[in-house]
Amino acid sequence: AIERTFSILKPDATERNLTGAINALIEKAGLRIVAQKRIRMTREQAGTFYAVHKERPFFGELVDFMTSGPVVVQVLEGENAVLKHRDVMGATDPSKAADGTIRKLHAKSIGENSVHGSDAPETAAIEIAQFFSGNEIVG
Ligand code: CMP
């Protein structure tokens, strides 16, 4: 089915001027960028977005990192978009990511791992709604 997923190009990617290179990989994977904006996340936005991880030991570090520089938030659309995007991102830990994936090519570490993608269509809907209104998404 045609799905939408939520994507973030993280501060380590914007800092190294990699947004175009990563978007090229996303588009080459067959996904369409139907919404996109560059923002600076507030600590409140990052905390809400990663609320599921708030008891993890890396939560503070994660909020610090995600608010340390600009990010690009996106809505991606395509056939099986959630899984397709997870495939092109590669494993969370770049040392375990498959060849040719965004994280294998570009990520610096498990924390500074260049990109985020939703883990399921239900999560995608919640994450998209946190950052985009309906009229900002043009399919
Ligand atoms: P993301 O897909 O954005 O969702 C949660 C993030 O937590 C994950 O990517 C990683 O960047 C980050 N993360 C996961 N494990 C660790 C860890 N052990 N140390 C630091 N950050 C982590």
TrEMBL record:
GO MF, one example: ATP binding
Assembly with partners or alone: Homotetramer.
Residues at the active site: H116 (pros-phosphohistidine intermediate)
Family note: Belongs to the NDK family.
Transferase found in the keyword field: yes
EC number per UniProt: 2.7.4.6
Domain Nucleoside diphosphate kinase-like span(s) in chain numbering: 2-139
Cofactor: Mg(2+)
Compartment annotation: Cytoplasm
Protein name per Swiss-Prot or TrEMBL: Nucleoside diphosphate kinase
Signal sequence interval, chain numbering: none
Organism name: Tardiphaga robiniae
Name of the gene this protein is made from: ndk
Stretches assigned to coiled coil: none
